Amino acid sequence: MGLVRPRLTDFYNISLTQEEVDFAIPFLDEDIPLYVDPFLLWKSPSMQDNSLHTAITNSFNNLGYLLEKGREKEAIDILIRGSECSEVGLGVSKTKRGARIGEKTAHNILSLFKEIPQINKRGFVHFEEIQLFVDQISKDRISDISSNFLKSFLIDYTMEQCEKHSIPMVKTKIENLYEYRSNKFVSEDGVYLPHNPETNESVLLVPKRWLRLIPWISYEDYFNGYFIKEVENKDIKSRVEVLNYNRRNYDMVQTYVKEKERMQTDCKNDPLFKPIPVLSAKRKLSTILKLPTGKTDNADRKFEDHTCQLMASLLYPHLDFAAEQSRTDTGVLIRDLIFYNNRSFDFLKDIYDDYESRQIVMELKNVAKVERDHINQLNRYLNNQFGRFGIIITRNPLPKAIFKNTIDLWAGQRKCIIALTDEDISMMVSVFESKQRLPIEVIKKKYIEFMRACPS
After folding, report:
1. Which of 2, 144, 230, 371 could connect to 85 by a Cys-Cys bridge, CB 3.0–4.6 Å?
2. Would you say 230 and 246 are in contact if contact means Cβ atoms under 8 Å apart?
3. To which H or E segment does residue 188 belong?
4. How many CB atoms are closer than 10 A to CB 233?
5. How many degrees, rounded to 5, is the angle at CA 115 between CA 114 and CA 116?
6. Contact 223, 119 (CB under 8 A)
7. What SS3 class is residue 220?
8. pLDDT per residue over 24-61, tens digit each?
9. Model confidence over 218-261: pLDDT tens digits?
10. DSSP readout, 232-245?
């Protein structure tokens, strides 16, 4: 495909912004760095989410029942099979495929039903507590186990969202589907789901409202925010020592969990992207405007860093930020911003139609005067991968000769390069603050001015 961090919607050429859909749009070649947090389902005002949390909890507690009935091998098999869910594409894997837990870790988890009397008697209310007792268990495992126990719902949800947004689906066979009636993993044929063209694996869509960077109940939160304050024995420092202490002192873990339940109103899902507030935008602009041109005192790097953060927020939600990347062009290191062109604005649709721009590249230049080489560098980058539209973000207006160079480039190759200056960025921040207009309209204005200068 050639795109930077391509998403499922990009492959199918579907115009959707992340803001307007209920689910996290999956990447094709890497995971989304968020996780399903079952606590969000527990505290949700939705009866459906509450019921799904009950289903997760009952499914997990059934492992204790199997253990009690002497069916340990069956419980271990369920736990191992449920420990990885590649279809949801959540986490930090660069390969879209993780590994399941081993038998030793599964034994350690199941031992909680035997060793801790309160769990043996009542089971778990929040199974993510296992992070506080078992090594090698963290947010990715909690997310995958939750997703596998919810897979039946996620299949229905995915089909519904695909039909709603015209995302193609193919007939497939699901090998690892948890069935509540039998409390077993089964296979099901004839299921229609979207597929990842990079891996040929099925894709499951996950509601954004379930996703967090760190589970509400987590080892790090417990240790830093509770354990070190409450435990007088300061010799307990290593993770394994803490986990063993927790097994012997379950009441303390229960107190922590009850405290997290009382604080549930503070538990909110984490968005895939969060724009900076107006005050931060104004501060970043102020810093940029005070920077000298060139590389003195790392001015070029500071210009790039502040501009990256500023532009990603100013253009959201009309342009979803894809990535920032560095490239080398004839020995010169160049910093770029890449945005998905969601065609969510009339100007963006024109750019897509006229220049085949599926992604928009913005090149950052902290120079006093843009030169012909700078234009040529960006020009070489405008190809089938990004289309024929690009933006240079620099400090001052283009010199007349360089502006004529961009006009000639349009006349000869139908490539469009426009420049955003300090003045333009200032205007974008101003409308961002006033909320009377949209920052992207400043780019539209620059494009219209450019087209008026082009030969008819």
Report:
1. 144
2. no
3. strand 184-193
4. 8
5. 100
6. no
7. helix
8. 999 998 899 999 999 999 999 999 999 999 999 999 99
9. 999 999 989 888 887 667 778 999 999 999 999 999 999 999 99
10. --TT--SHHHHHHH
Global pTM value: 0.90
Q: Cβ neighbours of residue 101 under 8 Å, at least 6 residues apart?
A: 79, 80, 83, 84, 136, 137, 141
Are 178 and 201 in contact by the 8 Å Cβ rule? The answer is no
Tell me the residue type at 274.
Answer: K
**Please, are residues 36 and 90 in contact by the beta-carbon 8 Å criterion?**
yes
| Pair type for strands 170-179 and 184-193 | antiparallel
Length of the chain: 456
Alpha-carbon gap, residue 140 to 335, rounded angstroms = 32
- Which stretches of the chain drop beneath a pLDDT of 50? none
Residues 280, 328 contacting (CB under 8 angstroms): no
199: Cα separation from own chain's centroid: 19
| Whether 66 contacts 75, CB under 8 Å | yes
